[in-house]
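Hello,

I think I submitted the magnesium ion job twice by accident. Can you confirm which output corresponds to this input? Input:
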Amino acid sequence: MNYSGIIFDLDGVICFTDKYHYQAWKKMADEIGVYFDEVINNRLRGVSRMASLDIILERSKKEYSQEEKEKLAYEKNEIYKELLCKMSPADLSAEVKDTLDALRQKGCKLAIGSSSKNTKLILGRIGLDGYFDAISDGTNITHSKPDPEVFLKAAEFLGLNPSECLVVEDALAGIDAAVAGGFDSAGIGEAATHEKVTYPLESFSGLLGI
Ligand code: B16
Ligand code: MG
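Support: Only one job matched these inputs. Its output is below.
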């Protein structure tokens, strides 16, 4: 591993909260009578909360004011946070935990680079509270992926340059963000198909082969 720092996306890389995002958005969409399904939900991966809402409202006949949208996003997040209470350290796979520990053993600094404003809550639920050397998330950025801000901040928090860090992502927008910030990247799932990904991986533990 030739990188001093590794910056991990959270949802879809360290753990999986898709189903809770889906259930919470679905409840909100049903309440306002807007069609929403799992195919539309796939478009929300790695996308910020307000941008996700805009995608869902593409199907709405009604125009929503900014204030109304903020209320809807707030309601969705309250439902989502309640669902997150179902998560426990059992939602952190042994493969992910063992790989993180092994990378740390090799001397790598580990950071989170997530769009989620619920990052700290989720890390606490899965037993990774205080584990990472730095956390850059939805609470410290003004531009979401594909903008590189969240990863640039993570590198800065680690005291490293982008060229010294590897970004690990599951979303295409996340690889776009890594490329825009001058980072090498490792892609899992859909992100492994991105034409500019540096290392397409079949599984999380593939990081140990880099
Ligand atoms: P929140 P990531 C992203 O996390 C999720 O993939 C995306 O579905 C979600 O809309 C976004 O966080 C914002 O989350 O509503 O909790 O602030 O993949 O960047 O770790
Ligand atoms: Mg993700």
